[in-house]
Amino acid sequence: MTLETPEEYYARIAAATDAEGRLPVAVEEMPGWDIYPYEIASLRIKPLRPLDDEEPPRRGEDPAECWCNDPGAQLSVAGTAWSNERWRLVLAQETRVPAWLILEPLTHCDLATVPDDLAEEMGRLVVAVAAAMEELPSVGRAQLYRFGDGGAHLHLMFLGRPRRILQLRGSPLLDWEENLPLVPTDVHRANAAHVGARLRERFGGDGPSWL
From what superkingdom does this record's organism come (predicted)? Predict the structure, then answer.
């Protein structure tokens, strides 16, 4: 079996574009869902750009330059809800959903390079964070994201989808989140503290620390 190259994959996409290099809006897919936040008639996909020569370096590709060598240098967090000697659960700097928490190993690794002992613990932590987040009165579902395109250090993002606002269900939640009003800091901290307390009950570790 011959594996497809980036050039072959890109050529197939380019062949589907119009004279301006734009793909059609897939109205029967996500834009057609009742939870999609934008009106289809006003949507237009940007022209397809040329294939890049290579993947760009991410923040922390060199472990010596990663935030894990200087935790105080990570400016995108607002404090820690829970931590132990291997992991920490931090708050996003701000959020427009009831809770936005980020689980990070203190050891420098990415998802594909998590050591076996941490991988086993990570599975239990993911379950525990999701369960605790779904106990929050304002959360209907815990959503889990991992992208990894901006930073080379693993960070698993948990977003609390607001309870009973069914228009915010599913993968469009991130699009909705950018347009919702900010959650007050004290509310975000209280929700994060609840999740942190549940983790301490199961795994020990340290409690909240706000920045």
Answer: Bacteria
The residue to which tokens 């301006």 are assigned: 20
**Confidence (pLDDT) at 106:** 94
Per the structure, the complete domain to which residue 34 belongs is given by 1-54
Residue (of 164, 169, 166, 97) closest to 133 by Cα position: 97
Domain shared by 75 and 129, yes or no: yes
11 lies in the same domain as 91? no
* Alpha carbon distance 161, 183 (integer Å): 13
How far apart CA 48 and CA 112 sit, in angstroms, is 29
pLDDT in tens, 130-142: 999 999 999 999 9
92 in the same domain as 2: no
Decide: 36 and 30 in contact? Cβ < 8 Å.
yes
- How many other CB atoms are there within 10 angstroms of residue 20's CB atom? 10
Burial environment of residue 186 by CB neighbours within 10 A (0 to 12, 13 to 18, 19 or more): exposed
Segments of the chain scoring below 50 in pLDDT: none
Q: CB–CB of 138/163 below 8 Å?
A: yes
**Which pTM value belongs to this model?**
0.89
